[in-house]
Amino acid sequence: MAKALQTEGMPGLGPRKQRVVAVLTALGVVYGDIGTSPLYGLKQAIDASGALTPETVTGIVSLIFWALVLIVGLKYAILILRADNHGEGGIVALLALLDARHAPRGSPRASLLIVGLIGAALLYGDGVITPAISVLSAVEGLKIDAPALAPVVVPVTIAILVGLFLIQRKGTEFVGRIFGPAMLVWFVAIGVLGLKGIVQSPAILAAISPHHAVLYLSHAGPGIAFAVLGAAFLTLTGAEAMYADMGHFGRLPIQLGWFAIVSPALMLNYFGQGGLLLADPMRSKIRSTCSYQDGRITRWLLSQPSPP
Predict the structure, then answer these.
(1) CA neighbours closer than 13 Å in the CB half-sphere of residue 64
(2) Using one digit for the tens of pLDDT, what is the confidence trace for 249-280?
(3) For residues 244 and 123, is the Cβ–Cβ distance under 8 A?
(4) Which residue segment(s) compose the domain that 33 sits in?
(5) Whole-angstrom Cα distance, residue 100 to residue 117?
């Protein structure tokens, strides 16, 4: 199926150009969810921490960075994509490789069928929730520059979601050709904006070291650490599409899309967001007055106008 998508819709193109078009199309289908995670992922993790200190920001950015490296880059892009079933991916293809249906009743391999069914149910649940969160988070940006538009955020979100689901029936190639170029522009934009934030506060690059994530989680307390981990997991939503959509695009275009475009853009943006938080003078004052547990005080201080 991957070869069919790469050849039937691209007549007259050489192998290299076909690969480029396949990568571009994959951007619009595979990486839509995880590509919009910067809209809310770091924000939710910071809110869950209850305090905005340099140590908190650096620790959470480090946590997100290594989660993307290990779970998406290593687990999905390198390891899981090798477990294809005649080019197809997804939880059902994985179960077919295990041949759980023909395993002896009561054996450990037979019980994997139940695990697979639960995984499929979770995938459907994620497919229902994630688009709504992504679109709503994007449209909520209207309230920043135009607070008067707040009442239309939900209706606009519903209209966009209805439109998206209506065009899905036209097929993967059609959707990818529309959203592929748009997502390429999006990734370039968030990468450039992230680079600007890093320039403002290069100290955020210290988050590359994983010990910042470990230190933060060990000192935050079990409750806050669990909440932050749950919020930070939002930055990984959509990674499962890399394996689920492998049958449409093939392994190589998905891997090229991740390592050449998506991963660098996401890394730059998350580091850039962290750099902006470190560079904000108003928020820097909070670190001396709030502990990890002072969530309500932190939110009150952030809502106050900056001093003259």
Answers:
(1) 34
(2) 888 999 999 999 999 999 999 999 999 999 87
(3) yes
(4) 2-94+179-300
(5) 11
Measure CA of the first residue to CA of the last residue in the chain; give whole Å.
62
> 170: closest CA among 178, 180, 181, 161?
178
At 116, the amino acid letter reads G
Helix/strand/coil for 85 = strand
Taking 70 as the threshold, does the pLDDT of residue 170 lie above it? yes
Is residue 206 included in any domain, yes or no? yes
Task: Give CA–CA dist 221/29, Å, rounded.
Answer: 38
| pLDDT at residue number 143 | 80
25 in a domain, yes or no? yes
Q: Interhelix angle for 54-67 vs 211-220, to 10°? A: 120
- How much is the pLDDT for 113? 78
The answer to whether the CB of 219 falls within 8 A of the CB of 294 is no
d(Cα 248, Cα 189) in Å, to the nearest integer?
Answer: 27
For 180-193, the pLDDT digits (tens) are: 899 999 999 999 99
Residue 41 CA: distances (Å) to CA of 23, 75, 308 = 25, 20, 32
Q: How many helices (H) and strands (E) does the chain have?
A: 18, 0
* Total number of domains in the chain: 1
Tell whether 160 is covered by a domain.
Answer: no
**114 close to 16: Cβ distance less than 8 angstroms:** no
Between CA 290 and CA 295, with CA 266 as vertex, the angle to 5 degrees is 15
Do 116 and 95 meet the contact criterion of CB atoms below 8 Å apart?
yes
Q: How far apart are CA 217 and CA 204, in angstroms?
A: 17
Q: Is-contact 231 48, C-beta < 8 A?
A: yes
DSSP 53: -
